Each structure stands twice: as C-alpha cells, then as structure tokens.
Amino acid sequence: MTTPTENRNALPRARRVVVKVGSSSITSLTGGLSTEAIGSLVDALAAAYGRGVEIVLVSSGAIAAGLAPLELAKRPRDLATQQAAASVGQGLLVARYTGAFAGHGITASQVLLTAEDLMRRQQHANAFRALERLLNLKVLPIVNENDTVATHEIRFGDNDRLAALVAHLIKAEALLLLSDVDALYDGPPSEGALRVPFVEDLALLESLNIGGTGSAGLGTGGMKTKVEAATIAAASGIPTLLTSAKNVAAAFAGDDVGTWFEPTGAKMPVRKLWLAHLANTKGSLTLDAGAVRAVTTRRRSLLAAGITKVTGHFDAGDAVDLVDESGAVVARGLVSYADDDLPQMLGRSTHELGAELGHGFERAVVHADDLVLL
C-alpha cells in the first residue's frame, strides 16, 4: 500500500500536467496584471518544461486584465460588460505570458474554449487534436474560457472546472490547481484551522467548511470550485494537487505542500463527466421502483413505461435529473424528448408508443450512453 508521501511523487513523475492559475494570483484590483507574479509562475513552469514535462496552462485573468483599460473599478456583473472586458484583457494576458515564456525559449499559444467545445463530439475531437498537436510541437498552450462569446447557459462558470475537463481531454497524468490559498483547511485559516494534506475519501469533504467566493472580487471561483474541480479530476482517475502559486516549484518537486487528492475512479467519457458535475439540468423525471432498478442496477436505458411524472421545461438534448418516488436524484441524463411530448407517453410500452404515435417514439427517453449515476 502506498503512503500519502509516495502518492505525491506522482506529480514529479508526471509527463503531462495541466496547471490552472486564478485571477487573484496574477492580477490586482488596481494594477491589472502583475508582472512579478506572472514572471515567478512562468519561471517555475519553465523549469518543469525544461525537464521534459508537457504543460497546458489554464489561466484566468482576461476579465480582470481588461478592467483598467476600460476604466472599470471592479469586475462587472452584467454579461455584456464581462464579455467586453474579456475581449480587451485576453490579448493583454496572452501577450504577457508569451513574452515571459519566450524569455525561456518556450513558444506559447492561445486556446479559447467554450463548454460546447468539450461536450459535442466533433468539437471535442477538434479540441483534442489541436492541443495534442501543439504539445507534440513542443508548444505550451495557454487555455482560457472564451468569455467573449460564452453565455450564462453554456459555460464552465469558472476555470477550475475547465482545467479538470482539459486534464481529462488530453489524458493528463496530474492536475495542479493554484490559488492564493496554500491548501484546503478544515475551517477558516484565520481561526487556527489545520491543513488537510491528503484527501483519499471524498466523504471527508462533507465535514469541512469550504468557502465559495473568489478572492478580492477578481475571479468567479473560490475554494469551493477548486475542490469541485479536484473532485471531478479525481473521479476521472487524475490525481490533483491544490496549493498556492508560490508553491509551484515545490509541488513539481513532490514536497509536502497543499492538499493532494488521490484518484477515486476510472476515466469516464467526457460527456458523462460533464453530466455528473457540470450540467445545468432543466427538469426532472420521476421513476417508479422498477425503472430505478433498471437504470441504477442493470444500467439500462430509461423507457417511458417507468416514468410517473415530468417536471420542468426542457427540449430534446437537455440534461434532466432522474429521481425516485421520494424525490432523491439517482441519475442524470440527456433526454430524447421535449417536456410537452412526454405526458402522453408515461407508463406506456415502447411498442405501444410506436404503434400509436409513430416510429419516432420508439426510442428510449434517456439512453444508457447519455446517462450517469449519481
């Protein structure tokens, strides 16, 4: 059996690592991008790159970088102004990184992604090919959410979760989440809380007081989203270290810094990973006891015969929760019908529906390939 210390050696041994840094670590409210902070981060990443580590950097900071040029005192609340700030700031952010990495002889590139790029099969394949080719060409990709075109309905919401999905996409061997906080604590650090050095059982997280807001009003994330991202990665078989930006070199050396999340599951398809952790559900389907057993125990598709109630408004292809008769969510999936099509189908067999309503109604309500157990 390995020890926590031995497990941490997975990061120094990793040949492909996704590193995520938050806005608060590279910017300030009044000064925009911090040359010193970016320089220090790039120095540490360049050292790992020089040892043969393939690195993808997921960096927040575009909106924060755009505040000063637009004479905005704080991060805007409305989507249109956020998009404008991102449009101005993204160029500044990448230019600063490109210059810093060039000083080490490293070519950097910009990759902007939306949630849809990783959810739809064709865009997912394109994103993988682009990143894989960049890494093969010894380029260091700098990834950010495409805030200029992303909408509230279709977005990652923060770059922590984006980093977890990118790690899954490129088959990274480790994920390094950087913040202005050096680790996960069992309470507020200011109140004498203790560092949590190692998370092997995710049930431990339920007992911790984890904050959910970003630092200094610059970012959208916080410790809560970082723990969610670490959980997503760990559940997909990718070990994750959560620590501060100043600890990058120590992290790559395998030192006892931050909080290490041990993998808790095997790699799963990215669509199911998204469904389990990120999907914005539009409604729910209530299942009878037999349908619950078929979906959860036998891993079968959900048929109309086992549905007793439809709640919410959704279209075909939207994510919905599957709940038992007590209201507990047992699974989540992509529904094949709109909410107004389903009431006439409830409790009826597929054969009966096909005979009366046509062959288009013979398919499953939620196919097993588009369903994930919770």
* Ends distance: 28 Å
Question: How much β-strand is present in the residues?
Answer: 15-25%
Spans where pLDDT lies below 50 across 5 or more residues = 212-221
Helical content, roughly? 25-40%
Q: What structural category do the secondary elements indicate?
A: alpha/beta
Strand tally:
15
Which H/E pattern describes the elements?
HHEHEEHEHHEHHEHEEHEHEHEHEEEHE
Mean model confidence by pLDDT: 86
Number of helices, where a helix is a run of at least 4 consecutive DSSP H or I residues: 14
Q: Largest beta sheet, briefly?
A: 8 strands, mixed
From the alpha-carbon coordinates, what is the Rg to the nearest angstrom? 22 Å
Question: Could you give the order of strands across the largest sheet?
Answer: 5-6-4-1-7-9-10-8
Large-scale geometry: globular
Kindly list the characteristics that best describe this protein.
single chain, 374 residues, alpha/beta, 8-stranded mixed sheet, 5-stranded mixed sheet, 14 helices, 35% helix, globular
Can you characterise this structure?
This protein has 374 residues and is an alpha/beta fold. The chain has 14 helices and 15 strands. The protein has helices spanning 4-8, 10-13, 23-26, 35-50, 62-65, 79-102, 115-119, 121-136, 159-169, 223-235, 248-252, 270-277, 289-296, 350-357; strands spanning 16-21, 27-28, 32-33, 54-59, 108-113, 140-145, 174-179, 198-199, 240-244, 259-261, 283-287, 307-312, 319-323, 329-334, 371-373. It has an 8-stranded mixed beta sheet with strand order 5-6-4-1-7-9-10-8, sandwiched between helices. A 5-stranded mixed beta sheet has the order 12-11-13-14-15. A two-stranded antiparallel ribbon has the order 2-3. A hairpin with a 3-residue loop joins strand 2 and strand 3. Helix 9 packs parallel to helix 10. The radius of gyration is 22 Å and the shape is globular. The model is unreliable at 212-221 (pLDDT under 50).
